């Protein structure tokens, strides 16, 4: 049985002037369905706080090197906003029941690491999908063809300027030579899921041939320069 899922997003945006030269934008995003909900505070495109309704607490997601921030009362406000969101969802569902649905599949799916890869050193894989409508997409990860859920985190959908959405999923991993990861995206407008792969390759193994070619090119250039110099001396 195919189930229809309605999701409502409420996005509040503002611009904070940090200095005379730099502007930062913060967004408060509230989303809800009949069974689930999201409440996220973002600075530019980075999540700085979100509500975990399963654990009934707010989560500070700033990196450890950032200046500490406090969010008093944010979780309580997020809980209250969920009630408002679900009421608005009910009203919207009734108003939109006879309107044909627009379906746009994702236009782009990329996978990359946050840091340069070092074997045995923890890193983060990013799976970024954009250009889809309506929201959300479903993102799943695999490692060596086995599904992975631990260490994964998927953001709420974020709107693009053209009215489509983008969404990001993260996977914490420790690179090991030969491991292959995949990010698969499902969406109502896709006939079949989209998948991107990431293979862990030791950069040292690639560096040898690259350095050899670089040395060869350098020797070749020096040889040409020496020939031109001897030619000029011979004609003097």
Question: Strands, helices and their partners?
Answer:
Blueprint: E1 8-17, E2 23-32, E3 37-43, E4 46-52, E5 57-60, H1 74-95, E6 108-113, E7 123-132, E8 138-143, E9 146-148, E10 152-154, E11 158-159, E12 165-173, E13 180-186, E14 194-199, H2 203-235
Antiparallel strand pairs: 1-2, 2-3, 3-4, 4-5, 6-7, 7-12, 8-9, 8-13, 10-12, 11-12, 13-14
Low-pLDDT residue spans: 13-20, 204-226, 228-234
Which of globular, elongated, flat, extended, rod-shaped describes the shape?
A: globular
| Total count of strands | 14
Assigned CATH architecture of the largest domain = Sandwich
* Gap between N and C termini: 91 Å
Structural class: alpha+beta
Q: Domains counted in the coordinates: how many?
A: 2
3D architecture notes:
InterPro entries: Ig-like_dom, Ig-like_dom_sf, Ig-like_fold, Ig/MHC_CS, Ig_C1-set, MHC/Immunoglobulin, MHC_I/II-like_Ag-recog, MHC_II_a/b_N. This is Ig-like domain-containing protein. One of its GO terms (cellular component) is MHC class II protein complex. It is a single-pass type I membrane protein. By secondary structure, the protein is α+β, with helices and mostly antiparallel strands. It has two domains: 8-95, Class II Histocompatibility Antigen, M Beta Chain, Chain B, domain 1 (Roll); 108-199, Sandwich (Immunoglobulin-like), CATH 2.60.40.10. The protein has helices spanning 74-95, 203-235; strands spanning 8-17, 23-32, 37-43, 46-52, 57-60, 108-113, 123-132, 138-143, 146-148, 152-154, 158-159, 165-173, 180-186, 194-199. The strands form three sheets. The protein has a five-stranded antiparallel beta sheet with strand order 1-2-3-4-5. Strands 6, 7, 10, 11 and 12 form a five-stranded antiparallel beta sheet that branches. It has a four-stranded antiparallel beta sheet with strand order 9-8-13-14, with no helix packed on it. Strand 3 (37-43) and strand 4 (46-52) form a beta hairpin. The termini are far apart.
